[in-house]
Design a protein that fits this description.
Chain lengths: ~500, ~300
């Protein structure tokens, strides 16, 4: 592939000119270093951006927003008493990652998910890790996500969490830390794919000039993984995607993945479990057997017979069918036991215990409020810390100490004393920033990264993942439900021989 | 094909066709009114009647003689569930909730069409802009039909959409004939002079004028036009052709015996004929029978495919 020369590296002028006004204010920036020079993986992007006038930059941002609206890339927000199908907020400046760094990160993510799956299987079977004193029993016993009906179950390959979305953040020291592992119904991967498709239209030049790892094979990797779970010996198992329905905030993604995999997108009402303990879907030709269900419905709603009786979303008898080995569910019910911020603090220990390896990726330092000493420390330092409930996702129910009022501190003091097991605390991280289009200029905004990891017969990690960006100045909240946007993520190989 | 998804595809087909027919109808009547002198008694109320919208319009507080507000009600009223804008929103919603099965390009065209309609239809109240905007709607509907026909596997989902498409078209053709016939065959003398103009407009609203001319080599008359629109075997908007298409689609679907029988029953309904003329009352009665039969067929689709009682 012909490469444009990066000759202005020698003069430096063209690169740094426009970046002179860009100030990450002491945070680690993904694109430029402390001296304002582009990082190795970002050279091509920085040089290209410097060549764009503010007007052209703005025009490209507008074009991309229009494309997203027309492609119908949406997420649903349920505020103001209505379901609004909103366009996905997107920033055109890609977030760049170096290929070598990514290889190590990828290995670390695989290592983590392997250990987590061994942990879940162990917890629902012999509980060796508790017997050996590495993990305390009370955490599982008090967990609302430990599902008794799952004890002794044997999902394919002994893997419970088939799809994991781990959130990575970079602190001011430049290290990537794992903030949490989303093991229930992690979402965002369709936006990662759509972001890439939009950027290919917006910056085609940048794709022909360098080696950016493609992400498009995710749906086929997902399908292969799901297929590997089928209990049927049939070569063409019936794989379906189960969605809570069109009002779910991630409905777009459910439809998107079903479409890309060529699978049926089903709702609870489309499925039925017959007296033979097998799962069928209602089709215009009658009932058709289902072998694998990629479920985007939370486990407690899956089967009103086994879990929440008031669930309208689930399928009565689904758990029976699963336990009988007649259908595969991904992720397996019960997986949520490991999607708990207290359990998270033990992942490094799990890696050592089950794999006999040192963790390749670090956890964010975390205080478990269930430890009396930690609780005291947290209560004394609320103003510096971020406090999170163990079982929430989407950024709900948390306290960002430095940004919260005295009244909120007081409220959390009461909450923490009443139910310490349900909380953890972490230092307020100095999340890294990336340049983001704000009006006609580039300004630093905080970002995180959610790669997706698959485990079935084999393992797969998305190159990069979904970069989420807090669009409000100074904000650390990247969730799309709370004013976050996203960026395309480029893992760039500075390959030899060019 | 899931029953629920099949149902949505069927309705997507119906709504897209309904949108296109409405756009054609309003375009043609807009021009016709420019040709007619005042006081003919033919106005936007007649068009309102075709959509069965007179009552809804009155309920919404509309004044029957205010052309502008009727046109707004027909085109861009978000509260009127039968307005062109609402019809497109429903088509889009059915596509959005089945976007895993329809071609991505087709979804995109429909989504863009809806965005365009939301922006532009309120402006189409102005006569100067109306024609261009309505033609844009029609063209995009055609583009969508072409994409679905040319890029979607002609399996069950396609057949269900096609079924909806053609049943809606047959239904729309009968509504247009019914309203026009009631006006034109009323025997009012002041209209006689415009007979030719009016029947040409009816044919045009179904894009049938040119094809009619090729087929019928006489001056345009009501009975000839009606016969063409109801019974021509080859014109794609005639009722006979549309029911043929529905029948073909049904035949390729599983468990199709009941709807197939209903289709035969529709074809057995004969247009009352008497020496080149048509009795208005007999025609109205015939169209009533057709519309009831369409409703029965629609019910068959539910009991057979979309919500069968036997599926556990």
């Amino acid at each position: 592939m012909p490469k444009q020369s990066v000759s202005d590296k020698s003069t430096g002028a063209a690169v740094t000119l426009d970046w002179a006004h860009y100030d990450p204010a002491g945070f680690y920036d993904e694109l430029v270093d402390a001296a304002g020079r582009p990082r190795t993986a970002a050279e091509e992007v920085a040089r290209y951006l410097a060549s764009l006038s503010p007007k052209r930059l703005r025009a490209r941002q507008t074009a991309s927003e229009r494309a997203i609206l027309e492609m119908g890339v949406t997420f649903t927000v349920y505020t103001e008493g209505q379901n609004i199908d909103r366009a996905w907020p997107f920033d055109i400046i890609p977030r760049t990652l170096d290929g070598h760094e990514w290889d190590k990160t990828e290995a670390g993510l695989k290592q983590r998910l392997r250990a987590l799956n061994m942990f879940i299987h162990d917890i629902y079977h012999q509980r060796r890790i508790i017997e050996d004193g590495v993990f305390p029993a009370y955490i599982v016993d008090s967990s609302t996500n430990f599902l008794k009906p799952c004890i002794g179950a044997n999902p394919a390959h002994d893997v419970w969490a088939n799809i994991c979305g781990s959130d990575l953040v970079r602190d001011s020291d430049g290290t990537l830390y794992v903030l949490e592992d989303n093991l229930r119904v992690p979402s965002g991967v369709s936006y990662m794919l759509e972001n890439r498709s939009v950027l290919k239209h917006v910056f085609p030049e940048l794709f022909s000039n360098q080696n950016i790892r493609p992400v498009d094979d995710y749906p086929s990797a997902l399908f292969d993984m799901l297929r590997s779970l089928s209990p049927a010996t049939d070569d063409e198992p019936e794989v379906v995607v189960l969605t809570p329905g069109i009002y779910n905030s991630a409905y777009f993604e459910h439809a998107y993945l079903a479409q890309r995999m060529g699978c049926e997108l089903v709702e609870g009402g489309d499925l039925v479990v017959n007296s033979d303990n097998k799962v069928y879907m209602r089709t215009i030709g009658g009932l058709v057997r289902v072998d694998v269900i990629y479920s985007r419905v939370n486990a407690d709603y899956l089967d009103p017979e086994a879990f929440r009786a008031d669930s309208q979303l689930g399928v009565p008898g689904l758990l029976r069918a699963w336990r009988a080995g007649n259908v595969a569910l991904a992720n397996a019910p019960g997986t949520g036991v490991a999607d708990d911020k207290v359990v998270y603090t033990y992942v490094p220990d799990m890696i050592r215990y089950y794999l006999g390896e040192e963790p390749l990726l670090a956890n964010v330092p975390t205080w478990r409020c269930s430890d009396a000493d930690s609780l005291e420390y947290v209560l004394d330092h609320l103003a510096e810390l971020v406090v999170k409930p163990a079982n929430e996702s989407g950024g709900y129910g948390m306290l960002v100490g430095p940004h919260a009022s005295a009244a909120e501190h007081e409220k959390f003091r009461t909450l923490l004393r009443a139910d310490p097991r349900n909380y953890i605390a972490q230092p307020t991280l100095k999340l890294s920033t990336a340049p983001t289009v704000v009006n006609d200029a580039l300004e630093p905004r905080h970002v995180d990264l959610r790669p997706f990891i698959l485990q079935g017969e084999d393992m797969y990690v998305t190159p990069g993942g979904l970069t989420r960006v807090a669009l409000r100045k100074g904000s650390l909240v990247v969730n799309s439900s709370q004013g976050g946007g996203s960026k395309d993520t480029w893992v760039i190989d500075r390959s030899s021989g060019e | 094909m899931l029953s629920r998804v099949g149902n949505r595809l069927y309705w997507m087909g119906r709504y897209v066709e309904r949108a296109e027919s409405s756009a054609r109808l309003i375009r043609v009547y807009s021009e016709l009114f420019l040709d007619l002198p005042h006081g003919t008694g033919i106005g936007w109320r007649a068009v309102l009647n075709i959509n069965g919208g007179e009552q809804a319009f009155a309920d919404a507080g509309g004044k029957a003689d205010d052309a502008r507000s009727i046109v707004h009600f027909l085109l861009a009223d978000e509260v009127n569930a039968a307005s062109l804008l609402s019809t497109l929103a429903l088509a889009r919603e059915n596509a959005r909730t089945t976007r895993d099965v329809i071609p991505a390009e087709a979804w995109r065209v429909l989504n863009e069409l809806h965005l365009m309609a939301r922006d532009k239809l309120p402006q189409a109240v102005q006569e100067r802009k109306r024609r261009r905007i309505l033609e844009d709607v029609i063209q995009r509907c055609q583009l969508l039909a072409g994409l679905i026909d040319g890029t979607m596997t002609h399996g069950d989902g396609y057949q269900l959409a096609r079924m909806g498409w053609h049943l809606e078209r047959a239904d729309m053709t009968t509504r247009i004939i019914d309203v026009a016939a009631a006006l034109l065959m009323s025997g009012r003398d002041e209209l006689k002079r415009f007979d030719n103009t009016l029947w040409m407009a009816v044919l045009r609203s179904l894009s049938a004028y040119q094809m009619y001319r090729q087929q019928v080599r006489r001056r345009v008359t009501g009975p000839d036009a009606i016969r063409f629109l109801l019974t021509d075997q080859l014109f794609p908007r005639s009722v006979a052709y549309c029911i043929d298409q529905v029948e073909n689609a049904i035949a390729s679907l599983p468990r199709s015996a009941t709807p197939a029988r209903s289709c035969s029953a529709i074809r057995a309904l004969q247009l009352p004929a008497a020496d080149g003329s048509l009795d208005p009352a007999a025609l109205h009665d015939h169209i009533d029978k057709l519309q009831l039969a369409f409703a029965d067929l629609n019910n068959d689709f539910y009991t057979t495919w979309f919500a069968p009682a036997d599926a556990a």
